[in-house]
């Protein structure tokens, strides 16, 4: 959703965050592990298994299934996020 105040347009929406409890085979140890993945789902329709398979594959595991998925959402305001990002950049630059 977009909101306009004077000459400023700001996008506001919700981020959907997930806690995915997975079963994964560890290629290094040869054991099945229970792993928890915290991630953002880009839309409410996105299947958590797609994210789990990708994350596990990158980290050297083979996806074996999902035990549980719990989601939550939080409001996201792009103008506020932009200002926070700029402050963080300035702080990071002052470190060096």
Structural description of this entry:
This protein has one domain: Ubiquitin-like (UB roll) (Roll), CATH 3.10.20. It is α+β, with helices and mostly antiparallel strands. The longest helix is centred in the C-terminal third of the chain and has 18 residues. The protein is 30% helix and 53% strand. The chain is built from 2 helices and 4 strands. Strands 1, 2, 3 and 4 form a 4-stranded antiparallel sheet that branches. The mean pLDDT is 92. It is elongated and about 60 Å long.
* Oligomeric state of the chains present here: single chain
Radius of gyration: 19 Å
Q: Give the number of helices.
A: 2
Give the rounded overall mean pLDDT.
92
Helix content estimate: 25-40%
Annotate the secondary structure layout:
Layout: E1 2-5, E2 8-26, E3 31-41, H1 48-58, E4 61-77, H2 78-95
Antiparallel strand pairs: 1-2, 2-3, 2-4
Offer a few descriptive terms.
96 residues
Please provide a brief summary of the model.
The protein is 30% helix and 53% strand. The chain has 2 helices and 4 strands; from the N terminus they run E-E-E-H-E-H. Strands 1, 2, 3 and 4 form a 4-stranded antiparallel beta sheet that branches.
């Amino acid at each position: 959703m977009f909101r306009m105040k004077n000459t400023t347009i700001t996008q506001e929406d919700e981020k959907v965050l997930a806690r995915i409890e997975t079963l994964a085979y560890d290629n290094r140890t040869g054991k099945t592990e229970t792993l928890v993945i915290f991630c953002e789902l880009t839309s409410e329709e996105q299947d958590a298994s797609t994210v789990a398979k990708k994350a596990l594959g990158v980290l050297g595991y083979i996806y074996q299934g999902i035990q549980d998925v719990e989601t939550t959402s939080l409001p996201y305001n792009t103008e506020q996020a932009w200002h926070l990002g700029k402050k963080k950049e300035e702080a990071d630059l002052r470190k060096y």
